Fold 3-dehydroshikimate dehydratase.
Amino acid sequence: MTNSHRPVPTPPRPTDPGRELRRSVATVCLSGTLGDKLAAAAAAGFDGIELFENDLVVSAWSPAEVRARCADLGLTVELYQPFRDFEAVPADLLRANLTRAEHKFDVLADLGADTLLVCSSVAPAAVDDDALAAEQLRLLADRAAARGIRIAYEALAWGRHVSTWDHAWRIVDRADHPALGICLDSFHVLSREVDPAGIAGIPPGKIFFLQLADAPHLRMDVLQWSRHHRLFPGQGAFDLAGFVRLVLSAGYAGPLSLEVFNDVFRQSDPARTAVDAMRSLVHLEDGLHQAERPDLRFRRLPAAPGLTGYAFTEFAVDGRSGPVLQDVLRGLGFTHTGQHRSKPVQLWEQGDCRVVLNSAVTRPQASGTAAISAFALTTADPHRGVDRAGALHAPVLPRRRGPAEAELAAVAAPDGTSVFLAEPDDGWRADFLPTGNEVAGEAGLVGTDHLGLTQPFDHFDEAGLFYRSVLGLRRLGTEEYAAPFGLMRSRGFTDPDRTVRLALTVAVLRRGDWAPSVADPQHVAFGTDDIFGTAAALDRLGADTLKISDNYYADLVARFGLDEETVARLRRYGILYDRDPGGGELLHLYTPVYGGRIFFEVLQRRAGYDGFGDANAPVRMAAHRHQRLAET
Amino acid sequence: MTNSHRPVPTPPRPTDPGRELRRSVATVCLSGTLGDKLAAAAAAGFDGIELFENDLVVSAWSPAEVRARCADLGLTVELYQPFRDFEAVPADLLRANLTRAEHKFDVLADLGADTLLVCSSVAPAAVDDDALAAEQLRLLADRAAARGIRIAYEALAWGRHVSTWDHAWRIVDRADHPALGICLDSFHVLSREVDPAGIAGIPPGKIFFLQLADAPHLRMDVLQWSRHHRLFPGQGAFDLAGFVRLVLSAGYAGPLSLEVFNDVFRQSDPARTAVDAMRSLVHLEDGLHQAERPDLRFRRLPAAPGLTGYAFTEFAVDGRSGPVLQDVLRGLGFTHTGQHRSKPVQLWEQGDCRVVLNSAVTRPQASGTAAISAFALTTADPHRGVDRAGALHAPVLPRRRGPAEAELAAVAAPDGTSVFLAEPDDGWRADFLPTGNEVAGEAGLVGTDHLGLTQPFDHFDEAGLFYRSVLGLRRLGTEEYAAPFGLMRSRGFTDPDRTVRLALTVAVLRRGDWAPSVADPQHVAFGTDDIFGTAAALDRLGADTLKISDNYYADLVARFGLDEETVARLRRYGILYDRDPGGGELLHLYTPVYGGRIFFEVLQRRAGYDGFGDANAPVRMAAHRHQRLAET
């Protein structure tokens, strides 16, 4: 690596002291025509876009019209991409490639764009010759410079001869042309084994562009992984903040630009996707402030709310589903303790478990059904939490939309559920008049362990990022399992103190007509310190618990080597069992499904069991299906 | 390999001379609860099932109840599977594993099943020691034999130490126990590099079970490939008939059993999937008759119909969409030549292109829309074709359901389209009275090149097998491309003489709410020998052709190096261009979308171009979207 680079004069890139990084999104991240994509990017607050060639090619707008449209929307075309299979070719092909490039320079000129991405060749005609690649890229950069254009050279992870960032950099370094730099793509860098630490040593001004994508760890062909499974930062497994800090330490001051190829985002509402994308960048930037860049100003978020538990879960009910849930709660040992002063809203309690039945929620749902319409978490500073949510482009809901008239800060989750933040002083209870009802019979439920929320197919990764960024939750594991009506994915979240847990589930493929409605239920799981005692109490209270197949218990004996007596006790109460590799145990039971899609779980965690019993989910789903068939 | 094996006495397996092979399907192939799966398998005509353990574990039916249910339905439990991680372990684990096995023997006894599948271990505790594996499997077989049970040992392609069929066979051979044999799974064998030819040398009676699955060639982790992307025979890329003939030459006479893990089948109507599965086995068996097995009788199909071309395409129209399509056809140079004697059905013609507009079809579709309701192909022996379709479990439609009263043999394709088979003598025209209309102006369309049919998401692979098996079509390539509203997959089919082509398309992921209706259109493509002459004629006739973006033509220059004059001619008429690696060229143009989801294509193939211009499909889809937005 040399330090002999001249400064980059073409074109001038001002670096105002203390300026903010620009935020950009590639058009490939968004569904629709170019018009749909630009509108969505602008509405979500992006400063610029990467224009993917195909989006221009199929567009009815000329490049000049695209430029004008972008200007109207306050967007800059930060990059035009990709230009493929250029370098390290025989002379005749080089000539053809330069002609091809001149056509693209025309397009950039009309677009008002100044940077063209050239990705490392995958063509059979390319030879493995760094000197030749450098020479030809220098030639290209020379022609580009004459048009006021820069060439950003990028190593594709599956490039024929150049597939790592350091190899691409050696060629750019060797070519030594002011209009030639490299483009770094976090996916291409982090999906490979090559250590990215050396990026910090790239001379200032030679990183022309930075593309960001997260991804889950997958064992698959890297090209397929890249083209189908990228995610926005914070939705996958890569350390994007660490990566961006490296790039910043090399002096980069260009845009943070998202380039995410994702099969779901490709067919989802682009306005939603763009907000999700912006949220990922805002959250990422919040983790960059340690970077030693006095010339830059990193926008910070209010700190995440320190959560201390679930205050309550609210169900939207109607005249038919309300009484059903009242009976169910009574059977579970709850008491109707409070009645709202002015609305048809009931509070039910047991231990630290609180459920609100709200007949006043105007939420679209079929008659006779129930749904989780809201949940409330306790935190010392609800307003800071809501400020953070707003900064993360989450829809902050008008105050006083809660079941109680007391002021509750609230924000809408991606599936429409309202998330309330409440102070731990129970101030929200002020609007409930005590019923004076005697506690009829409790079942030993001590608190809300978790909510299980089946997510709309298009919004699973969006929801995960929402809960991570807005509430500061951490991701627990992700499980995939075969259920009776198709594959399911389940992902757990919790706060650092494990006071709040959430399990988000989604069908791995969007469901079709065949799957019955019980395939997508929601549930609340209550904890107990004595599952057998609770089960016996539920029995006495006449609770309706889910009948579990005898085959399950026969298999349990074979699978875990449990003694017959324990298994007999489990079977008696329909308690399911799971054990983790560390010896932690989960004992849990379920109710049937009520009001179309609601069920309850009662569970006991032992010896640090940290999961959600996903191994038993297919058993539960089949049992719910049997229940439904028996009813009809 | 030794030949010292004793015959297998436990249990007796009769091999009646001239008997038929049994047909079996694994419960994992089908969606739903065990009840759904058994009902579907029986209705489709299977003789037996492989019972996947989880399907039993989650079932409300005890093993004895499953046995009774199967008996009622005429099904045998051919195999219980899988038993995992048994062999080559330390002594204490062996004891536990044997205890575990005894539990499963109990289950098999209750089920009335006699074969347990043991798959090669993936457990870290297993050691790489064939002698130990053989010794322990021998022990297991001994215990099994005492219960009248056989052990079928199978190499998982991702087994820890045993991952190939020949390795599994060496261990079984070494163990040399009459109740121990191998299970061959076509996926595990054909997904690996090991030559399967040696299978023919396995001594008679030692292949205990045969599992069949096809798969597309995919570059991915073999476990993921196996668990998500298997297909029924004839839907993928494997030579299943060749594989089964090998197994038969080793004396195998057990069931042909489908074991297909497929994400789509897991969530589709099991009744449909089971018929698709049965069709795949019937078609496969038709290719087995060369096997030298005088003791077996292979069921044969009537030969595939020799196709000679498209007779006509029928559109279901109504009072609003009918006149629209009449105008469009007139603009394309068609003449209304025939009127049905008794029904509101019109025949339109040009060259060898024939279109029927049928207002009498009672097909569910929205008011004002049009849809391809049927197409007719010519063949010398329509009745043989329909007999073949019936033997392949395709729904044969009542005669005289065609637009004409003349007898037309017909079968329903998976998307509901009627496929008519007509004799080449045009007898079907007898019921149309000539209108005597003069030919107003033709555009040089010479015949129907292909139909483009977007398939329902759940039925894409089913449709491919339907057209391959029922009509004897061959598969052309499969393309995947990024379109404005998500990824698309397109697969071409044709007869050996290239007289009939079909392009089936499907969204790679099931579409959600965002995708507009123009994302799933149907179309008819007419051929011309002179695309520019036809385009000029269409211009004169006032045809409405689809406006293609100027950007497309600018890119065409860069991409293919076409001369400016040619590109100017293409642009003038909205003609798109594609070139294949062999120099074949496609020139084609489109109409807008009419009646909700119908458009027409006009094309010229040059120099043997054999595809469907999929590279241009996103351009067309964006243009259709622009058209729709301009209309609204």
Q: What stands out?
A: Chain A has two domains: 23-269, 307-631.
